[in-house]
Design brief:
Elements (H helix, E strand, L loop, with lengths): L3 E8 L2 E8 L4 E5 L10 H7 L4 E5 L8 E2 L8 H15 L4 E6 L1 H12 L4 E7 L9 H21 L1 H12 L18 H20 L4 H6 L4 E6 L6 H13 L4 E3 L5 H4 L1 H16 L2 E3 L9 E3 L3
Parallel strand pairs: 3-4, 3-6, 6-7, 7-8, 8-9
Antiparallel strand pairs: 1-2, 2-4, 2-5, 10-11
Length: about 300
């Protein structure tokens, strides 16, 4: 197995724990849910055969500690952490994979620092503002129900609501992947951050649509093959429609990156390779010839 390096990056308001392994074009993983760098190990290892893979704990999770008295981190704060981590780790644009809240962070990163992103695969990011009014209301109600369940009955009740929203199927997995994730004290602390602080930030966040529209070629909206009836899949499709980019389907469901890491990594490799293929561009002005471009 490829050796793994790790370290801590000081950013305004927090210290960020990160890991890096492999060689090749850089890939940054922005995990969803309460996942820290440890949870992405199987996906990281599958990608590290061809890439230098960078993983980290979001601020507030596991080993990434907010400074004393620091305010609750926003999606923009998380995106700035990702920006500073990329600036520390590489001087070339990176492939970025972000799922769920990680997808929102990736979209904010593209809006603010597009030159750092070769391609963002935004997997089932909760971009509910792009939904038709009735579906947006359904999504808001589901998110509020999850937060209410946490406030009234605790973590287990909230996770059940989350599973309903995301259409989670623990049996939709590769044979060697276990679905049992123990509720350790560390995971419980991470879930309290997710359900108590981050869920509210996800609901409050609004896309910088003009900025990501300009950089649409850097974004691949993505969703799970087995979540086609969920609102999160519909969010991904709405993002693809707004950006006029094809919707990429990936193995598994909302947590396909966790439960089907080998197949998911292979599909990511396809998306990365497609982003690197030269494409024809038509000239906008009369008499301008078509030309090849290697731009992402």
């Amino acid at each position: 197995m490829t050796s793994v390096q790790q370290g801590t990056l000081q950013t305004p308001g927090a210290s960020i724990f990160y890991r890096s392994c492999g060689r090749g074009p850089p890939v940054l993983i922005l995990a969803g849910g309460d996942a820290d760098a440890d949870a992405t190990d199987p996906l990281r290892d599958a990608l590290a055969e061809r890439h230098r893979v960078i993983t980290y704990d979001r601020r507030g999770l596991s080993r990434s500690r907010p400074d004393p008295g620091a305010p609750t981190a926003t999606i923009a704060d998380h995106a700035q952490d990702a920006h500073r981590l990329l600036a520390e780790m590489t001087d070339e644009p990176a492939f970025v994979f972000g799922s769920s809240i990680g997808g929102l962070i990736g979209l904010d990163l593209v809006a603010r620092h597009p030159s750092q992103v070769r391609l963002l695969v935004a997997h089932e990011a909760p971009t509910k503002e792009l939904l038709p009014e009735a579906e947006e209301a359904q999504m808001t109600a589901a998110q509020e129900a999850m937060r209410a369940a946490y406030a009234e009955a605790g973590i287990s009740a909230a996770l059940k609501k989350n599973a309903q929203l995301a259409g989670l199927d623990p049996e939709d997995r590769e044979p060697d992947v276990t679905t049992l994730v123990p509720l350790t004290p560390q995971r419980e602390a991470n879930l309290r951050v997710l359900l108590g602080d981050e869920a509210a930030q996800v609901m409050a966040y609004r896309l910088d649509l003009p900025a990501i529209d300009i950089e649409a070629r850097r974004i691949a909206p993505a969703a799970g093959r087995s979540t086609r009836r969920t609102l999160l899949h519909r969010c991904a499709r709405a993002l693809s429609e707004v950006l006029e980019r094809p919707l990429e389907e990936f193995p598994g469901g909302h947590t396909g990156w966790l439960l089907r890491p080998k197949a998911f990594a292979a599909r990511l490799e396809e998306a990365f390779a497609e982003a690197d293929r030269p494409r024809w561009l038509s000239g906008d002005a009369p008499g301008v010839a078509r030309r090849w471009t290697d731009d992402p």
